Amino acid sequence: MPCRFDKEIGMEGRSNGLIEKGRGGEQRRAVLYQLLLVAVVSLLAWVLVRNTLDNLHARHIATGFDFLGREASFGISEHLIDYAPTDSYFRAFLVGLLNTIAVALLGIALATPLGVVVGVARLSANRLVSGCAGFYVELVRSLPLLLQLFFWYQLITESLPGPRQAIDLFHLLFISNRGLKLPAPLGTADLTGMLLIVTLAVIASVLLAVWARRRREETGRPFPTFFAVTLLILGLPLLGYGVCGLRLSFEIPVLQGFNFSGGATVTPEFAALLMGLVIYTAAFIAEIVRAGIVAVPPGQIEAALSLGLSRFLTLRLVLLPQSLRVIVPPLTSQYLNLTKNSTLAVAIGYPDLVSVANTAINQTGQAVEGVVIIMLVYLLVSLALSAAMNRYNQHITLPGRGR
Amino acid sequence: MPAPPKAIGLNQGWLNWGRHLFASPGHALLSLLILGGLAKIVPSLIEWGLVKAVWSGGPADCRAAGGACWAFVGEKFRLILFGIYPHDQQWRPSLAIVLFLAMLLVSANPKFWRRWLFWMWASGLVVSALLMWGGIAGLPFVADDRWGGLPLTLILSTAGIVLSFPLALLLALGRRSSLPALRSLSIAYIEFWRGVPLVSVLFMASVMFPLFLPEGISIDKLLRAQLGIILFTAAYLAENVRGGLQAIPVGQSDAADALGLGYWQKMRLVILPQALRLVIPPLVGQFITTFKDTSLVVVIGLYDLLSSTKMALSDPQWRAFYVEGYLVAAAIYFLFTHLMSRYSRYLERRLASSGGSV
Fold it and tell me: Per-residue pLDDT tens for B79-118?
């Protein structure tokens, strides 16, 4: 298309009528082509919409999102908010969305540290360590995620013992083919108080870290941020326990008959999905981390060490800031992949958004609306996550180096 | 991608394992932990997989032996590999697999990276589809809802790449075009499909495509899934092609303009022949991804390699031997993806060392 070269000719040859005419013709053609393209695309869209409306009419399916207010009348095995089959489709979708968000956030939180450890292990001078890490990465990346999910799910439901022979950890945690049972905090006023204190400690830590960083940048005086934050986050709740007498009470699962009662449950579906997503994504993150570390020239580390920085400070002040710049953009797409891959939940029966939408589509026939909801939600989640990661990326990019 | 780094100070250590693995207390501890773990796992794996394994017999023999039940694989191998394709006609999917392997081998040689490569794949696909369907040349017709196993996986993923390629090419050119309408339509298409998960695309293909068509016309499940995979893959492939286009120096385009070539002449004769060679390594990567991703068709009820393995395991008698079943499926997937990813890494190294020309 008219590239830089055309423009230069256009400017130099302004008096040259031939070129002027040629350019004008080209521009007219360009406009014509685009109008034609828009017309074809619109026509295609119109035909598709027309056919869809005709088909829906023929099948007596009302279009529109009115069905969201109707009673869903199907059960959802896992819900973070209260849900009953008598609730509306809207609430069912919300339950599915929250389940998706829960598994995606937890997956990201677990896959990142695992990936970092494996990525660093691949670079270990110890051949055994790097060999094991390499084996893990190669194996996991070569197999379809769905195959891994099926395997984990079968492993949990077929090979773990039944509730009566459950693996018992300290009489608090019980692992069986019905999932993981663990103590659940009882919703008392003390629990609310404790949560409030923890929230306060986190906010105070963030403020403190920001202040310490600013002071270091202005005056050069260091502040033991890590130590202070640990003290805050551990100390404040302990104070709440000791001084204010806040006591948390837990409900411990007990075996009754053929199953456990009480306590909280991590279902086999959730556990298999989370395990599969974390193990799969961590292998990809490991490769990204490895590439990020390799991208920092070894001279940088040698220089930092010869300046007398400790190994930890070298890592924190020299290696990490430089490798993060390489790591963050591909890491973002891995986070997005994990979120999108969580839709495989439908294949092992974890009620995520797609699985709920699928049930709703089968019940109501509102295929278009269901698919539109799924796609819109994933587009929004993708955009939100990449916007957040882009902000973080700008934050760690060297100022003045356009990217 | 840079070549895998060589760890520092390894050369002497490599010759002397003892000194290498126990270089410092930390390393010694790690090495001991790993060696201890291996010493525990490897013998029990050998015992399970070889010593106590059952190579033929029924489920009862397997349960008695307590080792790996390879008898299951012997019993269900055809089901895993070919799905429910008619038993006496299974030489046809076997031949299709051979055809695909041959095409992969031919494509692996950079000497053959010419225009006809695309047409070879396109015609190979047509031939294998005709072979599978039959109904001509005396072959009995086999409806595509009976296709399954490895041939289905190969057909879905190969057609996903080959047929989406022209669309991807147009989208990549469109995204780099100076015409605003064309550019924004291309960007919208690419970002939309890259933003949504494949599972939802497959659902859309299975429930919405029938609504798009005029009344009375319908396309079957396999073609709908295939169409969904093509539309989805095109967006990812377009970004790969765009990467190749961006790597071509502006001078090439300027030179073509100076010679008075029109847009399509310029693309066909100057830019694309150079750019598409650069696209081949990421194309292999995309093929690996698509090959793994076609396993998702299980959610709309097609019997690819993974689903037919699952079907074989749904036999209540053999259900307990899911490890063996998934191991076989995993081995087949691994063979394809691992070889291809090694090949793609070799290509990248070759590309890097030759300064851009393959």
Answer: 888 877 777 777 888 888 888 888 888 887 777 777 787 8
Give the C-alpha separation, A150 to A148, whole Å.
5
Residue A25, domain extent: 4-52
B31 Cβ contact list (under 8 Å, min separation 6): A126, A128, A129, B21, B22
CATH number for the domain that contains residue A352: 1.10.3720.10
Question: Cβ A361–B213 below 8 Å, yes or no?
Answer: no
Is residue A106, in this structure, part of any structural domain at all?
A: yes
Whether pTM > 0.95 for this model: the answer is no
- For residue A159, being part of any structural domain is answered with no
Within its chain, how far is the Cα of A136 from the centroid?
Answer: 22
Cβ pairs bridging A and B (under 8 Å)? 179
Whether B173 and B217 share a structural domain: yes
> Which residues in chain A have their CB less than 8 angstroms from residue B342's CB?
none
Q: Is B354 exposed, middle or buried (0-12, 13-18, 19+ CB in 10 A)?
A: exposed
Neighbour tally for A343: CB within 10 Å: 26
Contact list in B for residue A344 (CB cut-off 8 A) is 199, 296
What pLDDT score does A15 carry? 44
Residue B228, Cβ density class (10 Å: 0-12 exposed, 13-18 middle, ≥19 buried): buried
- Among A124, A354, A367, the residue with its CB nearest the CB of B211 is A367
pLDDT digits (tens, 9 = 90+) for B51-69: 777 777 777 777 777 777 7
Task: Please check whether residues A12 and A116 belong to one and the same domain.
Answer: no
* Alpha carbon of B34: minimum distance to chain A alpha carbons (Å): 7
Q: For B198, which residue in chain A has the nearest alpha carbon?
A: A340
Alpha-carbon gap: A148 to the closest alpha carbon of chain B (Å): 9
| CB nearest to B31's CB, from A3, A126, A346 | A126
Mean of pLDDT values over A18-46: 77
Query: What pLDDT sits at residue B249?
Result: 84
Domain containing residue B225: 84-353
Name the closest residue on chain A to residue B2, using Cα atoms: A291
